[in-house]
Amino acid sequence: xxxxxxxxxSSARIKLSHIESPGTLLYHYNGNRKxxxxxxxxxxxxxxxxxxxxxxxxxxxxxxxxxxxxTEIEAGGGLVRNEKGxxxxxxxxxxxxxxxxxxxxxxxxxxxxxxxxxxxxGIKQLNIIRKIGITRHTYxxxxxKRLIKKSHWYLMETKxxxxxxxxxxxxxxxxxxQLESFFKKHRQVYPNIIDVLTAELEPSKETQKK
Length: 210
What we know:
This protein is an alpha/beta fold. 28% of the residues lie in helices and 35% in strands. The protein is built from six helices and ten strands; from the N terminus they run E-H-E-H-E-H-E-E-E-E-H-E-E-E-H-H. It has helices at residues 16-20, 33-45, 59-67, 109-121, 179-185, 191-201, and strands at residues 5-10, 24-28, 51-56, 71-81, 87-92, 95-97, 100-102, 127-140, 146-157, 171-177. A four-stranded mixed β-sheet has the order 7-4-9-8. Helix 2 (33-45) links the parallel strand 2 (24-28) and strand 3 (51-56). The radius of gyration is 18 Å and the shape is globular. It starts with a strand and ends in a 9-residue tail after the last helix.
């Protein structure tokens, strides 16, 4: 299945640059939920599509109908910084990522984020500095069910320490790295993770993705 960045927007916000961008598909939503579902299937199957903008006159209608095709799961994760200005990154399933995981029923978002980072990297004594934002990405379950993961991201600090990747979660590496060096060396990164990293380099950037 092709990994595609999907953006929901209103007709008024579509720009010429969106139309001319290679690998980008524009789809005007006509209000028919079945047609929208067919488009989602099409997007997943086409290897030439990197990004898709789905737009409609009513953004609220588009958002409601789009989400109706998915089951939402909330997750918590973090971007962890040490005293040397290095950041914690993990390598999992062929891409660089940040530690995160599902929020359990009744669990606070902040507590879930800390717990997941500790479990996936073996790190201790995390302190939350601020919330970075929220990202969303879609995927299929093993049974083919459409899911959308809503991830809450926090900037955290701790002392530099040994990292222990959680291998039963398919984490091959856990490393400390300067972000500038990371962006120069690595290209295989999920789009929503780039958003979180960029938000740290440019704090004014909004990290809300539809």
